[in-house]
């Protein structure tokens, strides 16, 4: 593994040349501000990015409208459905759905068994999220407005405090803070297997420019 970014990260997303990540800093007047950085994986070097580039890659072409409505546009996870809807989920379970032209069409605080969901991956008519307190992964039907499937449980060790997820091909990659693993769910038969095991909590897994990238407790690494 090659470490490319130190700690105190707020968010990390993929873009055409590599990754964009955000960090907090304190302004002279004591206010907290967000700083935006890029890392060019092809050249293996840091690269400057702007707030607009971050927002465009996270929310799509109508990022200005969406960011204005959200206020906090950094601490949420986002995915775009096949129908071009933008799905936003905060760690509190607050969920919003925006149309392709940036209009909010639905919002709710989603909880599974009284526990907040986190993270979002679109899969046809459903979204997948994790439930950290329940040690499970759930799917939610946007059309029927109800949970439709659960994988794992509070008593099971399949997932141990899952905190985020990503999707590549027909597989979900689940990052587990407590077990320090990335585990894979096959969307063909819903089997669960180990994928990566670390020596510290893992918060996010993504791919960009043919490379695997993980956000661990100690920073961001290229595998």
Structure characterization notes:
The chain is mostly beta strands and 223 residues long. Helix content is 8%, strand content 55%. It has two helices and 22 strands. The protein has helices at residues 51-59, 63-70, and strands at residues 2-5, 9-15, 18-26, 32-40, 45-47, 77-80, 86-89, 94-98, 104-109, 111-112, 115-116, 118-123, 126-131, 136-141, 146-152, 162-168, 171-176, 181-186, 192-197, 202-208, 211-216, 219-222. The mean pLDDT is 95.
Helix-strand pattern:
EEEEEHHEEEEEEEEEEEEEEEEE
Share of helical residues: under 10%
Chain-averaged pLDDT: 95
Label the structural class.
Answer: mainly beta
Spatial arrangement of strands, main beta sheet? 1-22-21-20
- Give the total of beta strands: 22
Report the end-to-end length measured between terminal Cα atoms. 5 Å
**CA-based shape:** globular
Rg estimate, integer Å: 17 Å
Q: Which range does the strand content fall in? A: over 45%
Quickly count the helices.
2
What's the story with the biggest beta sheet? 4 strands, antiparallel
**Residue runs with pLDDT of under 50 for 5 or more positions:** none
Secondary-structure map:
Elements: E1 2-5, E2 9-15, E3 18-26, E4 32-40, E5 45-47, H1 51-59, H2 63-70, E6 77-80, E7 86-89, E8 94-98, E9 104-109, E10 111-112, E11 115-116, E12 118-123, E13 126-131, E14 136-141, E15 146-152, E16 162-168, E17 171-176, E18 181-186, E19 192-197, E20 202-208, E21 211-216, E22 219-222
Antiparallel strand pairs: 1-22, 2-3, 3-4, 4-5, 6-7, 7-8, 8-9, 10-11, 12-13, 13-14, 14-15, 16-17, 17-18, 18-19, 20-21, 21-22
Helix pairs in contact: 1-2
